[in-house]
Amino acid sequence: MPSGGKMIKLHVHMQLCLHMDFLPCLNLLPVGADVKPFTPEKAKEIVMSLQQPAVFCNMVDNWPALHWNTKYLSALLDGKTIQFRIGMKTMDLVPQFETRCSYVEATLQEFLAWSCGQPSCLSGPFSCYEYSKYWAYADYKYIARLFEHKEEVFQDIKWSDFGFPGRSGKESTLWIGSEGANTPCHLDSYGCNLVLQVQGRKRWHLFPPGDTSFLYPTRIPYEESSVFSKVNVANPDLKRFPEFRNATAHMVTLSPGQVLLVPRHWWHYVESIDPVTVSINSWIELDADHEARVEEAITRTLVCAIKSAENPSDADLWLNPTEIEATSHDINLQYLNRAVSAYFKCQKASVSEQAHPSSFGAEKMTSASRKRRKRQVGTEPEGCKLLTHEADFSTVKAEKLQKISFGPHLIQVLPQSQETSSMDARAVESDYRDLIHGNEGGHFGKLHCARKLLVMSNDCEMPANQMDSDGSPNASQTTLSTNDLLDCLVNPHVISLVAQLLLERTRI
Q1: What is the pLDDT of residues 365-422, one digit of tens each?
Q2: How far is Cα 369 from Cα 285, in angstroms, rounded to an integer?
Q3: How far is Cα 8 from Cα 30, in angstroms, rounded to an integer?
Q4: In degrees rounded to 5, what are phi and psi of residue 72?
Q5: Taking the model in full, what pTM does it have?
Q6: Cα–Cα nearest to 232, from 252, 210, 247, 222
Q7: How far apart are CA 289 and CA 343, in angstroms?
Q8: Could you say which DSSP state residue 144 is in?
Q9: Which residues, listed in sequence order, are joined to residue 174 by a DSSP beta bridge?
Q10: Whole-angstrom Cα distance, residue 455 to residue 97?
Q11: Is the backbone of residue 443 left (phi > 0), alpha (psi -120 to 50) or beta?
Q12: Of 324, 334, 331, nearest to 442 (Cα)?
């Protein structure tokens, strides 16, 4: 508290400033003003240019969404049922893909009762799943659909604070899980990702795009915009996937009130480490998504053509539950042509825009910011209208990146040291306040099938008679499967090259 003399001097100084029209020099702010460490413009610059994961702190303190804990959401949903994915807590060498999980329809109140071990769960939708052995995850729940009759709650989420005016809960996704709930390691083909942690903590295992070959990418199970890893990064099978040793894990435990930036094409495996977790995310469109849609169209065409020609097998659930059906070759080819057309249309618009820049273009925002987009014949991919001036930020020069100041409000997610690699991370428990572990080193929603799926993908295990005594494949007996062929054909590097050649052919 200032002394009486200091108060008098301050009063005199203010009076002098008032009389001399120097009020701006005081930089006064209204009482109770919400001061954030980054302006929306600076936050957007960081999001669109930073090529490594980082955690924003103290950016969402005034967001009503911070009150979206499970009890509040349960009251808000008022008995509405949602789909939960059920998985085993036991750690296998094989990833728990969505094709290997069960699904139940339940209210959030029933989920909370189950997670607390209440007797009422003995006859409810979770009655077959003992809490100590299973986890449950209501993942990819689009808020626009979940609260379609309560649109006022969209404004509880204010991505405008990160430089995206008009983006709210309508363009966001909700995730509710129990301890152990996880998302298999994958990369997203489109955009970058902002993730707000609301309740509980989640541990993120992230790997840079340069580690793609070490993560053994696969498109089986197939899902548009998701490239999965064959490796269970939390419990890797190093005999089968020896190159994973070369991957560089970046790990962070995200706590409530923090926002994680996941840059484009960073691999990530996410697990809930508290009894109940709630997260909200939004995928931000990037200029590179134009070509990515062409690549995804090529991938879908190849996967559907080859797998549909194969004799159907109940043991090979190659289509992820998020995909409604295997689309026909004609439909896939139409979508490919529209993706290519949209690519050139946006390129032309970009050239025109550079010649005639718009003063308000940077403020335009799309209302359709969904990671997965359902295709409809006769309609163009979202393409050009999805992307505005985000490219202006993605082309920031290297010297500008150096000006990004890390500190208590923007924390780097650093690589793991060899001593505390992701393989041993499960044995390392941190204090609730610890953020960084180690410092060296589209479809609208997930339209799951209602049926229960507990079948392993047929490319996950190699029969014993095809292994030598030392555990290596027996070359004389190994039979390559259709999935092996597909893993080569739709490898991200191959698809990228095919897309470039195809676009070049179209340009001629």
Answers
A1: 443 344 544 433 333 334 343 333 334 444 444 455 567 889 999 999 999 873 344 3
A2: 7
A3: 21
A4: -65, -45
A5: 0.75
A6: 247
A7: 9
A8: H
A9: 141, 280
A10: 10
A11: beta
A12: 324
